[in-house]
Amino acid sequence: MINKIVASVADALAGVRDGATVMISGFGGAGQPAELIDGLIEQGARELTIVNNNAGNGDTGLAALLKARRVRKIVCSFPRQADSYVFDELYRSGQIELELVPQGNLAERIRAAGAGIGAFFTPTGYGTQLAQGKETRIISGKPFVLEYPIHADFALVKALKADRWGNLVYRKAARNFGPIMASAAQCAVVQVDQVVELGALDPEVIVTPGIFVQRVVCVPAHIARAVA
Amino acid sequence: MINKIVASVADALAGVRDGATVMISGFGGAGQPAELIDGLIEQGARELTIVNNNAGNGDTGLAALLKARRVRKIVCSFPRQADSYVFDELYRSGQIELELVPQGNLAERIRAAGAGIGAFFTPTGYGTQLAQGKETRIISGKPFVLEYPIHADFALVKALKADRWGNLVYRKAARNFGPIMASAAQCAVVQVDQVVELGALDPEVIVTPGIFVQRVVCVPAHIARAVA
Amino acid sequence: MKRRTRDQIAARVALDIPEGAYVNLGIGLPTLVANHLPRGREIFLHSENGILGMGPAPAAGAEDWDLINAGKQPVTLLTGGAFFHHADSFGMMRGGHLDICVLGAFQVSAGGDLANWHTGAPDAIPAVGGAMDLAIGAKRVFIMMEHQTKSGESKVVRQCSYPLTGVACVSRIYTDLATIDVKPDGLHVVDMVEGLSFAELCGATDAPLIAQHAPAL
Amino acid sequence: MKRRTRDQIAARVALDIPEGAYVNLGIGLPTLVANHLPRGREIFLHSENGILGMGPAPAAGAEDWDLINAGKQPVTLLTGGAFFHHADSFGMMRGGHLDICVLGAFQVSAGGDLANWHTGAPDAIPAVGGAMDLAIGAKRVFIMMEHQTKSGESKVVRQCSYPLTGVACVSRIYTDLATIDVKPDGLHVVDMVEGLSFAELCGATDAPLIAQHAPAL
Fold first, then answer.
1. Number of domains comprising chain B
2. Which of B134, C7, D40, D107 could form a disulfide with D160 if both were Cys (CB 3.0 to 4.6 A apart)?
C-alpha cells in the first residue's frame, strides 16, 4: 500500500543536503509552509539556493533561515519589503547572492522544469536590465528573451488537504506557487492542515495529482503558527 | 451585466470567416462539441484550418465538416483511425493538407499560444521525421527541437457547466484539450450541458475561468447527439 | 489651476474602464482605482497571485490571510470569482487576456517606455514582482502618476533615465495635470485640468506634446 | 522451445513494475499488461488524455464515454484517481514524472532507437499520437513486441529502417523469445524462453547480443 504521509516534519525533510536547491511556496504568508521552513532550519543543511517569490519578512520563516546563514543564493522576484531587513543586511554586505527574476518568468521557469521544457522565449523583461546578456529573438515581429527552467532538489509546499497518494487541494490564493513547485522538484514535501481518506478528494477537483508529491506531513491549523 | 450565454448555436458561431483557424476540443468522442461542429457546417465558412487531436470518424462531426469540403488544412496528432475514411480519401487525393504534430507538442503549442510564449524547446520528436527542418539545440546535454505556438481565431469547446461569466467545469476525461484551446483562441465558443447561476461553481473548482471564454451556448445532454 | 488629487486621478482612470473588462490594478496608487469603479458595472479584477473576480477589502475582523492581493492586503472574492496557480495567472497576463492594467511609474517616455521598478540608485535593493509581466502583457497599459517629482522634474520624459520595466508598452498616462495618449507619432493630450493651458502643460513636461484636436502630422 | 504468448509477454512485463510506479501503457499490445498487474500492488496508471489512477474496463452496459483511455476504450477510475487537461498530462510525461511507459514497436535498434509510428510506406497515412512524447518522457521505456515479423525478420536491429519515434530512448525489450536490456555497451540478454539457446536467439536477432552473465567489456 502506498502511503506518502510521514510522521513528522523531521522525517519530511530527511535528506536535504548542503548545497541543495529548495523551492518554497507562498506569496506573502499565504501558502507559506512555516513549519517546514522551521524544520529546515533545525535540519541544518547549509549553502542552500532558495527559490521563493520573496526573500523573507521580519525574523520568522524564510527570514529566520537567512538569519541562520543557511542560504548562499536566493532566486526571487520581490526581495525588498517593508520588513525584509534580514535579507537587506545580508545583501548589502555581500553575504547573499540574488538572482532577481520577473515574477511571471519565475513561475514559467518553474513550470518549464516540471513539464520538461528545455527553454522558452518570453516577452517579459525584453529591453530591460533583467534581460542583459540573455539571448533575444524577434518572433512574428515581437521581441522575446530566452529563459531556462529552474529545477529543484526539494520543494516545500503548503496545501490544505492531502490523501495518502499525495493528491492535493489548496485554499484560495494560498495555491499560488505550490502546484508548479511540486512539479519542478525531485522531492516535493507538502505540509497540509488535514489528511483525508483516499477518495475524499473529488477527482475533478484535485489540483496537484499525487504523481508530483513524494512526502506529506500533517500540521493541523490549530498547531500551525499563524503567518500574516 | 455581463452575460456570455448566447441563445443558439448559430449565434455562437457568428463571424467565423473563410480561411479562419478553428480549434475543436475532444479526444475521440469525449469532449467533442458535436452540435457546434454541425453548426459550423451550417454556418458555411470555407478554407478552414482545423486543429484537433484527430481527423474525424465515420460520417459525422469533424468527418462531416471534411466531407463538406470546408477544410483546407488539418493540424492533428492522430488522423489515421479505423473509420477515418473521409480524411483518408481527401488526404490520398491531395485535397487536404496535413500538419502532423506529436500530441504533447500539439498540446504545448496550444498552451504556449494561450500563455504568450513565443516559442519553446521540446525534447519530443528530436531526431525524427517530424522535426525535419526544425531548429534544434542541445541544452544541458539533452537534445531539443524548437516549436512555435498555435493560435486560433475560434475554439469550439465542450464543457459540462458554465455560468454567465463563462466560468467552466468539465466532465472526467472530456476535459482534455478544452482548457488550453479556450486560452489560445481569439474567440472561445463553448457548448455546455447546463448553464448554472453565478456562484454555483466553487471558485476552487473552476477549471477554465471566464477570462478565456467569449460565448457559451447550452445544448442539454438529452438534446445533444450521442457521440462515441 | 487645481491639480487632481490621487483620488481624482483614480476616478479619471475608472472612467475609461468599460463593463466586462478584465483589469489588473498594480500595487500602490493604482489600487485606489477599485474605489472609483461605478457600482453595477461588472468589471473583473485580476490579482497576480491567482485571483480573478477580486472584491473589496473585507470588514475589520473578517480578514482571511489566504485571500490577499498583490500588495498582500486582505481582499474578498466576488460571486463568480475563481482561483488558479501562478503559472496560469501569469499566462493570463503574458497571453494578452487582460484588457487593461493600471500601473504606477517613475517615468514614461515619449515612445511609451515605462520605468517603475528601480530607481537605479547603486545601493537600492531591486525588486520587480509582476511589473514587467503586466507591462508587456495587458492589451492596454494605463499609467497613473504625479506629473512631476516632488522637486518639480517631469516624469513624462523624452527618454527614461531610470532602468526600464518595458519597452514601448504604455497606452495612456493619467497624471494630476492631464491625460495623455501614447501614439506612434507622439504624445497626444486627451484632457487637462481646468485652468491649465497647453503651453503651461508643455512647460511642466519634458517630452514634446501634441495638443488636443491638433491635426495629425 | 515455446514462444511466449502475448499474455505471457504482458505477464513478464508486469513482473518488472513495482508498487507505487507511475506507468503509461501504450495502445495495442501494452494494454494487456494491465490484466497481469498483481492485485494488491498499488500501481498508478496514467492515460495521455488526462487520467491518473485509471482502473479496468467497466462492466458491459456501464460504459461512460467521457471516461476512455488513449485507445478510446471505456475504462474506470480508481478511488484516488484524478483528471487534468492535455497540457498538464503531457507535462507529466515530458517532465520525467512517469516511472515506466510500455510501448509496442516495429523495430528497436542496438542503441535503443525506437520505431513504432510509421512503416515508411509512401501511401501510408501517418499518425503519431502520444508515442514520441512517451518515448522520450518516461524514466524507463519498456518495449513489448514479437521478436520477429511474420515473415521472420528480426525486429531487434542494428539500425532502424523504419522512421524513428525516438532516439536512444529504450530501456528494456520484452519479446516472445527473450527479455533484453539496452545498455551503453549494447544489448544484454536478461532472460530467454525455456529451451532456447543463446546461439539460437542470436540467430533470430539482427543486432548483436551480449549473453546473460557475460563479463562487462
1. 1
2. D107
Taking a C-beta distance cutoff of 8 angstroms, is the pair C127, C117 a contact?
A: yes
What span, in angstroms and rounded, lies between the C-alpha atoms of C64 and C72? 11
- Cut 0.90: pTM above it: yes
Cβ-based contacts of C65 with chain A (< 8 Å):
28-30, 226-228
In-domain check, residue A125: no
Residues of D within 8 A of A206 (CB-CB) are: 82-83
CATH number, domain with residue B90: 3.40.1080.10
Whether C1 is covered by a domain: the verdict is no
Candidates D97, D101, D132: best to mutate against A (most CBs of A within 10 A) is D97
- List Cα–Cα distances, B147 to B109, B141, C105, in angstroms: 7, 19, 36
Nearest Cα neighbor of C106 from C143, C52, C142 is C143
Decide if D51 is inside a domain. Answer: yes
Q: What is the grid cell recorded at C106?
A: 517613475
Establish if A199 touches chain D: CB-CB under 8 angstroms.
Answer: yes
Active site amino acids of D: 48
In sequence order, the β-bridge partners of residue A27 are A30
Distance (Å, rounded) from C-alpha D111 to C-alpha D186?
7
Closest CA to B53 of D210, A161, D86, C68: D86
Across the interface, whether the CB atoms of C52 and B209 are under 8 A apart is answered: yes
CATH number at residue D141: 3.40.1080.10
Q: How many domains does chain D have?
A: 1
Question: From residue D145, how far is each of C2, C179, D103, D217 by CA, in Å?
Answer: 83, 71, 8, 28
User: Are the Cβ atoms of C94 and B115 closer than 8 angstroms?
Assistant: yes
In a domain, D84, yes or no: yes
Look up the domain containing A34 and give its range.
Answer: 19-119+150-218
* C-alpha distances in Å from residue C114, one per residue of C109, C111, C138, D177: 7, 9, 14, 68
| Domain membership of residue D149 as a residue range | 6-57+65-210
In chain D, DSSP assigns E strands to 22-25, 44-47, 51-55, 76-83, 100-103, 107-109, 114-115, 140-144, 156-157, 172-174, 178-183, 186-192, 209-210
Residue A117 has its nearest CB partner, among B121, B170, B207, at B121
CB contact under 8 Å between D133 and B124, yes or no, is yes
Residue-level pLDDT, tens digit, chain D, 217 residues? 899 999 999 999 999 999 999 999 999 899 999 999 988 899 999 999 999 999 999 999 999 999 999 999 999 999 999 999 999 999 999 999 999 999 999 999 999 999 999 988 888 899 999 999 999 999 999 999 999 999 999 999 999 999 999 999 999 999 999 999 999 999 999 999 999 999 999 999 999 999 987 544 4
Complex ipTM = 0.97
B10 within domain boundaries: no
Residue B29 lies inside a defined structural domain of this protein? yes
Residue with cell string 525584509: A84
Is C153 noted as a catalytic residue in this protein?
Answer: no
**Single-letter amino acid, residue B124:** T
Q: Domain for residue B9, yes or no?
A: no
> Per the domain annotation, does C215 fall within a domain?
no
Cα Rg of chain B, angstroms: 18
